[in-house]
Amino acid sequence: MKKINTSLRLLPLLVGALMAMESGGLYANDDDELLMFVDLSKQQKSAPVAPVRTSNSVSADAMAKMLVQQTQTQKRAPAVPVSKPPVAKPVVVASKPVLSMPAPSTLPATPLLANPVVTVSTPPAKPLLEQAQEAITTPQVESAPPVKLLASSTIETQAPAPIRQAAEPSRVVPSESLRISAKSELPVFRPAPSSEPVASSLPGVGQPQLTPEPALSVAKAPVTVQRASPGELELRGIFYRAVMTALERSPQLRSTQLQVEAAKEDVSNAKGQRWPQVDVTSNSRRYEFGKGNRNASDSNMPAFGVNVATNLIDFGQTSNTIKSKEFSVKAADFQNTAQAEDLAWQVSNGLVELSKQRLIIEMSKQYVARMQELVKMLSGIVEADQGRRSELTQATGRYLQAQSALDNAVAKARDTEIQLYRLLGESQVPLPPSMQWQLQPALLDALLAQVDKHPTLAQARAQSLAASSEADALKSSSLPKINWVVSKDTGKDYYGREQAWQTGINVSWGLFRGGSASAAERAAVQRAAAMREQADNQRDDLKQRVRAADQDARSMLQRADLYRNLTRESDRIRLDFFDQWYHLGKRTLLDVLSAESDYYNNRVGEVTNRFDGYSAIFRGYASAGQLMNWLKNNPQPR
């Protein structure tokens, strides 16, 4: 009952305080009003009060009336300026602010409406309403002096006591791993040196640091999908038959085969220089005219001549020429093999690309059908509710995008078919419609070991050897040549006598040719060196292609598995979004359309990465020069 009476007495005080706050002229700020309100509340709870009238205490009703009168008087009269004491700043000691104040016994008696000296114990400032409630509900300290009510509106304030014995704040030692730069406002983190040894990245000191592959948990395809997909031997047989068809009708391959035959004939031409060279000459009858002595003998009759020259010594010119031509034959043969490998790669890549685009076309058709279904559904809804026409516009836009994606896939498939038509003609290749083939990348080390046998690299090496032999032949051409010559002429002299057979040794030596022979020799040597450098560069390039193809194959196949898992989840999301939009109204149509687009893009991403990985497998074998052997089902290292 006592608490109820106390609450009833405090109600007028709250009303008066609100009226004083609305007037805005009595107190300088909210803090003064709050202190006044606290004093009034303490006055009600304090034990003895200084007597002002005959009664022993001042009732709450009387105090409220007095407060209202003061407020009205203040509205008529100008406001009295209020002098505020300086507020002492607390000193932070050990993360807790402590403000030292004089003892309560030394405080003088403070009149009503004066700012009492308050002891601060907590650093954060509280809202005014919470402070007022704490002041009302907190019991009065027994040592507080009594308060006296003044009739005057003049406000007297008392300056706070000075701060004594303030403890010096403790110094915070920064961590060793956190340093603050003088030029930067943000802390710069410098990790402590690791105790583990760091591998040196200098050349020749350690292995090159490669980017580590992330450990991903990828769900593999179900066993039923793996069984339904075509096997590796079946796929290799399909591709090998297509490649053989392309090789039979390829004009490029026929051209390289003719070049091989021409190089072989060059060898026969060089070898023929070792045999005796037989020349036959013939002279017709000569007619005489004009002034001079005329020969009337039989020597003017038609005659035939035979000249047989056999090379005895040429210091290796003929043999070096034969070697050069033989190396040229090998280079042409390797070029023919390289052309076959290139055709096999073009056919294989085209078939893989065609399979990919056909699968994307099927997915695009399903996406178009789904968007068309949504457009048809929304058309019926808009007929009943015109306010949802914007949803129909959104669905129509996505439907047109789906048609564009389908048309793009069809265009790419037709481009691939045109390329295959140039290679295969009218031949049709039965490609498996499965989304997954049982193809796995070969061992990288095994492919790198086969790079030295690549036909392109072998061709460059053969050309280098041919150029070296040609240089040796040109060097020998500047040396003397010794030939054995046998000749016979059927012509008769003035007396009608016929010449006998003649034989002898012929020596020829070109001493001076203006430097052309030595220049030709140096040019051949430089060409040989250039061919060797080209072979080394080709070897490095082929190894880089093999490594890149292996990396692409493994990363794309792994990414395809990730897309398959993502496709499964996006399928659930699109179905849930549609149910939440159509049945519950918790999703917007834009969410449904976005989920459908994500599902389509994830399916396309899976097919694209998977078949690009298969294409990278074929590219790896082609870069190592083993594609034809692999397609012929020859055993390959795994």
From TrEMBL:
Which keywords accompany this UniProt record?
A: Cell outer membrane, Coiled coil, Membrane, Signal, Transmembrane, Transmembrane beta strand, Transport
Major place of residence: membrane
Q: Which residues form the signal peptide?
A: 1-28
Q: Which Pfam families match?
A: OEP (PF02321)
Q: Does the keyword Nucleotide-binding apply?
A: no
Localization annotation: Cell outer membrane
Question: Of which family is this protein a member?
Answer: Belongs to the outer membrane factor (OMF) (TC 1.B.17) family.
Q: Does the keyword Membrane apply?
A: yes
Residue ranges that the Swiss-Prot or TrEMBL entry lists as coiled coil: 525-559
Q: What is this protein called?
A: Outer membrane protein, adhesin transport system
Q: Which residues cross the membrane?
A: none
